[in-house]
Amino acid sequence: MSTPSLWQHANFRRLYASTISFSLGTQIYQLAMPLILYQLTQSAGVMTGMRAVELLPNLLLAMFIGVWVDRIDRGRWARFAIVGIVVLTGMQAMLLDNGARALSFFFITAFLLMTLHYLYAICRMGMLKEMLPEQLLLPATGQLTVLSQVFSILGPALAGAVIAIRMDLGLWLPMVAMMLAAWLLRDLQLPVRKPDPDGFWNEWRDGWRVLVANKPLWHMAWLVVIINGSAGVVDVLFLFRARDQLQLGAAQVGLMYGVAGIGGVIGGLVASRLRQRFGLGRLLALELGVEACSMLLLAWGNSIPLLLLALSINSFCTVIGNVCVWGYRQESTDSRYIGRISGLTGSLFKLLMPVSLVLSGALVGSLPLAWILSACAVTHFLLVVGTRVSAVYGVR
Known about the structure:
mainly alpha, 14 helices, 0% strand, globular, MFS_trans_sf, MFS, cell membrane, MFS transporter
């Protein structure tokens, strides 16, 4: 089926419209929060610590959320999750005036916010699986990823600009965007998930059985564990390097990330075509090698044009990898198990990130940032070899 066939599905059109607003709010928030923390504390440790806390729900709860999502009305609970995000973001905005004294509250709400984000993400994956035929799952994943990348251009630029004007706007604007996203999801007609008569824990064990039996996805999950651990460190520490070492302002950082997001948009548009040409496994190995080169440029580059090029390449490769991994997970998983498989792989994908972020934040004071970023690049080069010898490499 062709990509235009997607737009014949009314539920997908509604989900797409909601995702426009959700992605804008998410992208503004994701850059605004670390910039806000930097203005409050000027500490790399706090920035990496916050990022680690945000990953804990994926690590600790996703595998259980996935079982639950296979039992519920995914459209309704996606709306509930977004409403919860609106409430918590508003609470953060109201407490900004307390400055660094509110850090503990920010850490607690960050955990809750990411729990709700992950509930929404698994619900959305399940809704896609329910509303579309298998042939349209990869094009749909690509379209939604491109949409996210479009707003990764607008979001950071807008976040940097509004924070430069008034710090709390970096939280109020995402809150309004999320309210619109919840409203656009109304009236979705999706089946209610019925509990397995064998019970919750049997469903959870069935999820593991299905995942391990899918050897390419199982190997892919463990590769992504290391990929995310390395890439997560680069994301946070380069942002700190831009603000602390290169002395770039919030508006400049936002604009730079926004322009670099064009690479991600291009990656989302060509991912399906590149997969058809190279095959999924070979494409993953190739993008990991190129991404490693971009990390070296981010570690040692000092000129704005060079850093823009590196960020654009990094964004391009990251999106291609995401489309391939998420698309294959959708394609190779039966609808009955999609929530469980999404939750289990989601937990595995983030397994190393909290540890790597906390460790890198602690090492910033004793090691040059360029060395830490270069170590992440070397890790990605080793992952190319890991992909080559795994079951992933043979996947078309």
